[in-house]
Amino acid sequence: MAGGVGSRFWPFSRTKCPKQFLDFFGTGRTLLQMTFDRFKSLVPTENVLVVTNMMYKDLVMEQLPCLSASQILLEPTRRNTAPCIAYAINRIKSVNPNANIVVAPSDHLILDETTFVETIRTGLDFVEKNDSLLTLGMTPTRPETGYGYIQMSDGDTNLRKVKAFTEKPNLEMAKLFLESGEFLWNSGIFLWNVRAIDAAFRKYLPEMAAKFDMGKNVFNTDKEVAFIEEMFPSCQNISIDYGIMEKASNVYVLCADFGWSDLGNWCSLYELSEKDQNGNVALKCNTAFYDSKDNVIALSDGKLAVISDLNGYIVAEAGNALLICKRDNEQAIRQYVNDAQVRFDGKYN
Amino acid sequence: MAGGVGSRFWPFSRTKCPKQFLDFFGTGRTLLQMTFDRFKSLVPTENVLVVTNMMYKDLVMEQLPCLSASQILLEPTRRNTAPCIAYAINRIKSVNPNANIVVAPSDHLILDETTFVETIRTGLDFVEKNDSLLTLGMTPTRPETGYGYIQMSDGDTNLRKVKAFTEKPNLEMAKLFLESGEFLWNSGIFLWNVRAIDAAFRKYLPEMAAKFDMGKNVFNTDKEVAFIEEMFPSCQNISIDYGIMEKASNVYVLCADFGWSDLGNWCSLYELSEKDQNGNVALKCNTAFYDSKDNVIALSDGKLAVISDLNGYIVAEAGNALLICKRDNEQAIRQYVNDAQVRFDGKYN
Predict the structure, then answer these.
(1) Which of A28, B77, B121, B200 has the highest Cβ tally under 10 A?
(2) Which region among A266-270, B279-283, B303-307 has the lowest average model confidence (pLDDT)?
(3) What ipTM did this prediction achieve?
(4) Which residue of B has its CA nearest to A304?
(5) Do A304 and B339 touch (CB under 8 A)?
């Protein structure tokens, strides 16, 4: 899944080139490329599908030149994850109705790739043998309020039935979750076979399933694109979590711990980044701090930031824009971007 | 005079392209070009000399293509204003020992050019007839602590003998200066004829005058450059104010009021710029302020700055560097630039 617009990381992430297409850490590989690389030993290249928005087609082809055009599924409009996943599973079903599938966002960070690969193998083994929906749950390391949580059933294995999904908790609740040992972070990485997810769509999102059924003879043919362009915009705008996972009864979670972050916002990036002795984080830039602490500074490659008397701020500069705001006010960034869009006619999106 | 390095405006102003070569206000003309334009109706183009550092030769030629190479006098090293002016007057003397001269910095702002031209005409009339040293004094409009002041003798004309030059005062003193009506801002713009300034150099800086005398036959010949390269670095590093103006007895001041600023630092720029209702100044960029006041924001042309919860800061970004510091701490900028030079090997100078 590579269709997000990543507005929370503006101005680093732009509508025309959102987060998944950026070399976020200056490693030479974008988040999308790192996600692709991570699956190299698990999935043959020809079995990889990237679902993205039409406007990112060229970016995906440029960043993953090993993919053929038919492996890039183009959403004509943004409709959240359920229609995105429905599109991909219908394409896969037309090729192999017994396929086992991993669904993964393309804009997450995973530090321990070896453990990741082992976890995915374990998950694929399970969904090959069970018509269940499997999600990866991350063992929490802090009372994070920015993630949804998964409550596991009792048990002594690391693969358990899900008791409940929860919304993002407040700090007090998050601390209880952490202490209980019953709760995992919801990673948004899913595994299932075609039969199980197909049945789930029919049961929990029957209208959407019916829309995709109308095209059952066009997937993987030259009529697919026209069909999707026509039908997709009419799909309900809903996430797979809310539409299916939270409602289905055959949902399991595999506990894992591979240094995961959804890179959802500057604060999560701040948390996982190396800090200097004053708690300052510098991303892709040189910095000289004077009487300043607890800032996260992200500039275009190799720039110098001289920062004096600043505490607890996000300073992000890229392309034609600069953002300076408090770290604890970062939920307002989306509003700033919207304001700028209206006021400057999209020039800085 | 166009040889300054303008480090107080870093990162806007860089060693390789200091302030006088920048289109500071986004008008399409650099400060040097605006200075040249200002003299168009007063001085024939062929009588204009630009004294600058060797490393800025190409910049001057590029920005003032109407000048021939011989009109650009190149300092092989920085030696403050006295040697710079000595070079120019010796060149002028070799062409016309009776010339009347205006010496002007190339990095000041002048808003009312009509009054400026009238003032210069009045001054030139005076120095044509009097072997005196004339300086332009600006009627102060606020108790500015960033300027030196000139105390006038009693009188009822706007051209008076100078009683004393003073250093930059503290605020209390500056308020007294302003109230007294006796004090003017020292603009650093001088007028004199060749005889008067030549005599002053001989009297107050005899060693420097002797050095230039050694080359009296080479000015305006193809031997001038080699002579200057050899001799100039041995000159005393001293300003014309300290070396001559403060010591000479035949110094006059012409009071003027043409909307002048030396653009000496961000605060002076802040003072004279248009502010929004929250006291924010934006230079050459678009801005969106949230809960922010009294900032001065200067970015590369046309960029957007989104600024939240920031009060009383300088935010300046240009080329490969960004500076964020408090307005009342701007005297530290020079130190920041020096630190960066050492730490990053001049990459951000």
Answers:
(1) B200
(2) A266-270
(3) 0.80
(4) B321
(5) no
Is B336 close to A303, i.e. CB distance below 8 A? no
Among partner residues B303, B326, B348, which is closest to A321 by beta-carbon distance? B303
Which residue among A303, A309, A323 sits closest to B320, beta carbon to beta carbon?
A: A303
End-to-end CA distance of chain B: 21
Question: What is this structure's pTM?
Answer: 0.80
Three-state secondary structure readout of chain B: CCCCCCHHHCCCCECCECHHHCCCCCCCCCHHHHHHHHCCCCCCHHHCCEEEEHHHHHHHHHHCCCCCHHHEEEECCCCCHHHHHHHHHHHHHHHCCCCEEEECCCCCEECCHHHHHHHHHHHHHHHHHCCCEEEEEECCCCCCCCCCEEEECCCCCCEEEEEEEECCCCHHHHHHHHHHCCEEEEEEEEEEEHHHHHHHHHHHCHHHHHHHHCCCCCCCCCCHHHHHHHHHHHCCCCCHHHHHHCCCCCEEEEEECCCEECCCCHHHHHHHCCCCCCCCEEECCEEEEECCECCEEECCCCCEEEEECCECEEEEEECCEEEEEEHHHHHHHHHHHHHHHHHCCCCCC
Touching B: A residues 193-252, CB under 8 Å: none
B282 touches chain A (CB under 8 A): no
Given B325, B336, B344, which is nearest A286 (Cβ)? B344
| Chain B contact set for A317 (CB, 8 A) | 317, 322
* Contacts B324 to A, Cβ<8 Å: 305-308, 310, 315, 324
Q: Is B15 on the interface with A (CB under 8 A)?
A: no
Q: Do A306 and B343 touch (CB under 8 A)?
A: no
Averaged over A202-225, what is the pLDDT?
Answer: 97
**What element of type H or E holds A60?**
helix A57-63
